[in-house]
Design goal:
The structure is a single chain. The protein is built from 16 helices and 13 strands. By secondary structure, it is an alpha/beta fold. The chain has an eight-stranded mixed β-sheet, sandwiched between helices. It has a five-stranded parallel β-sheet with strand order 9-13-12-10-11. The protein starts with 9 loop residues before the first helix and ends in an 8-residue tail after the last helix.
Length: about 375
């Protein structure tokens, strides 16, 4: 009788020896990892370290979907990339680095957006999804696709000095919509670009995500299903909250109303920005140099204004604007241009002012970031 080949090669036994020595992991857990396929949505701050640990652990196939290219501002926290990679697609660079780390893992880079037209097929092809996204439409899309396809969704998010993680599996517990039934108003939650993020923070949260993924795929331990883990880097504390499944949840509840993927830009209110009047930095500068009277309103936070500002702007943070409208009463019939960092909060402010009776309100297209890039490089970017 011919001798059967071992389930792992001699080199694989050596590579994964520390796993194979674990009593609860062993050969069975390693083989389960080898046979698993993971979809990583986003190759940014969370995606980079999560991918590294999954590939090092020996996950069989890792598909990485991300449409973006490497930017200089990414390098503070996105540890797969180097300065020479600026301008290259993240998914492709990540694949190169990860193949060098473990050539036995099949890496599938996908340089395209994760959207309703492709999400269900990609999620269905995977055993598990890691959500490394940084915006609400993509998070709701990832959640709904995972619920519809019956796949676990390993969630993580970061902001400034805080992060959170969970595992959403509608077959065993709540989904993301059970925790957050509705998205926040557009512009009300600053992005990492607007609010900042501690460079090491995504590494901590992503390592938790990778841990949960490895546990799930290897069939060991107790996953974070039904639990939300919160981390605060400033006082180095972890807190845990129990999450209950919502029987009225529109996607995983008793009588779901969402049975197919929807338009998540519309659901999260992103589409309403089309109705907001905008002005380009060049046009605004021409108006100001021509002596046109009006108000330039800066709705960013004080710490942002300390980094960069446009001369002559009046500062009222978006969160205080509704309570301080009386300060702007003299501009109800005059031109008001609102700006923030990149345009999201300013569009929210425009709608607020229009609803309060201001008749000539516009958003500075692209915010102070566009002002610096296209008009005045002396204004620092952040």
């Amino acid at each position: 009788m011919a001798e059967q080949n071992p389930p792992l090669s001699a080199a694989q036994f050596e590579r994964y020896r520390r796993h194979l020595s674990l009593p609860s992991f062993g050969l069975e857990g390693q083989l389960r990892l080898r046979d698993a396929r993971v979809l990583l949505v986003g190759a940014g701050g969370l995606g980079c370290p999560a991918a590294q640990y999954l590939v090092a652990a020996g996950v069989g196939t890792l598909e990485i979907i991300d449409p973006d290219v490497v930017d200089l501002s990414n390098l503070q926290r996105q540890v797969l990339y180097a300065t020479a990679d600026i301008g290259r697609p993240k998914a492709e660079v990540a694949a190169e680095r990860l193949r060098a780390l473990n050539p036995e893992v099949q890496i599938l880079p996908c340089v395209e957006r994760f959207e309703a037209t492709n999400a269900l097929a990609k999620v269905s092809a995977a055993d598990l999804v890691i959500d490394g996204t940084d915006n609400f439409p993509a998070r709701y899309l990832s959640n709904d696709a995972c619920v519809l396809a019956g796949r676990p969704n390993v969630y993580g998010s970061i902001s400034r000095f805080e992060g959170q993680a969970s595992v959403f599996d509608a077959a065993r517990g709540p989904c993301y919509r059970c925790l957050f039934p509705e998205p926040p108003p557009p512009g009300s939650v600053p992005s990492c670009a607007e609010g900042g993020v501690l460079g090491v923070l995504p590494g901590i949260i992503a390592t938790i995500q990778a841990t949960e993924a490895v546990k799930w795929l290897a069939g060991i331990g107790e996953p974070l299903v039904g639990r939300l883990l919160l981390y605060d880097a400033l006082d180095l504390s972890f807190r845990e909250f129990r999450i209950q499944k919502d029987p009225e949840c529109p996607v995983c509840g008793v009588a779901p109303s969402i049975t197919e993927l929807i338009d998540y830009e519309v659901f999260c209110g992103v589409e309403v920005s089309d109705a907001v009047r905008r002005v380009s930095p060049v046009e605004l500068a021409a108006r100001r140099s021509g002596g046109e009277a009006g108000l330039l309103l800066d709705v960013r936070e004080p710490e942002e204004i300390a980094k960069a500002s446009i001369e002559g702007a009046v500062a009222i943070p978006l969160g205080e604007l509704a309570a301080r409208l009386a300060e702007l009463a003299g501009y109800r019939e005059q031109s008001v241009v609102v700006h923030c960092h990149r345009g999201g909060r300013s569009e929210t402010a425009v709608r607020l002012l229009e609803n309060a009776g201001f008749s000539r309100v516009e958003s500075l297209d692209g915010g102070i970031e566009a002002w610096s890039l296209t008009l005045d490089p002396a204004v620092p970017r952040y």
